[in-house]
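User: Hi! Is it possible to get a structure for several chains at once, not just one? Here's what I have:
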Amino acid sequence: MGEPTPQHVKELALPSGWHGIVKDWSSDQEAFKVSWGKAMMWIFLLSDTFIFSCFLTSYMTVRISTTVPWPDPSKVFGLTIAGVDVPLLLIAIMTFILITSSGTMAMAVNFAYRRDRKRTALLMLATAILGASFVGMQALEWTKLIVHEGIRPWGNPLGAAQFGSCFFMITGFHGAHVTVGVIYLLTVASKVLRGHYEHSGNYQIVEIAGLYWHFVDLVWVFIFALFYLW
Amino acid sequence: MSTTVGQQHPIRIYLQIWGLLFFLSTLSYLVDYFRIEGYLRWGLILALMLMKAGLIVGVFMHMKWERLALVYAILLPPLCLLVLVGLMAAEADYTFLTRGIFFK
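Assistant: Yes, the chains can be modeled jointly so their relative placement is included. Here is the combined structure:
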């Protein structure tokens, strides 16, 4: 707490007009006390939240407004194992896989800050493998729905035509996010393993990649509840 | 020298949250398995969903330990979506009723 700066000095230090706008938005202005990489990832995730919310809101809108009965997701996504119908089994397995991958990711962040490169890379690899198996199961599910159930984006034999468009749009967009996440994780993991971050000793990139991965899991929590269970 | 200090927490807390998420997911699956219907079903689904979301954002994404400036900047804007959801629910109800009148 020094002497307050006199008003005329303040005005001199801050340029006005276009130059002032640039100055105000760039030089050493800092609202978030985290690295820019982390702040930007959070802002990206915020924008992604709005995209997924728009999909889910439009799904809600068409589901409320249709006069044709909505197909029962519990039956559509059920599996028959040894002659017994188990509702929603594949989706439940996919949910557990994604949660498990979130757990291994959180642990990878922990080991990264301890600069344990091998364990970090291994846990990230495990996360990526779980993510890839999630996408694989999704491909299986899509194949079942398209080939065996005859569900198309413009109609299906089970009920409301909007079921297909919502399903393919929402799970497709989420699956694309998982796929990108797998590639992102593998890239960072291989860099960690090669010692790319040893020079700076800053392993925050693992935490930032983790934010993205947990977000993908977070979106699935909403899709699972609102699309599959509703 | 490291210039940024990241989020470092004991592994135990991650494992606990992981177990808790498994438990909550099992519960939400059981809601469907036992075919619970009506408001109880929707209430349970939403409650379990929000609990899981809170655990993921709070602990796995470390929001619990971030400074409030960041927490509010990220978590408050999505609340606008509730307005959108409300508007669209009203609009969809209206569309449904109109369709009921014209397509019988």
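The helical segments of chain B are 11-33, 38-60, 68-75, 80-102. Chain B has four helices and no strands.

User: Great, thank you!
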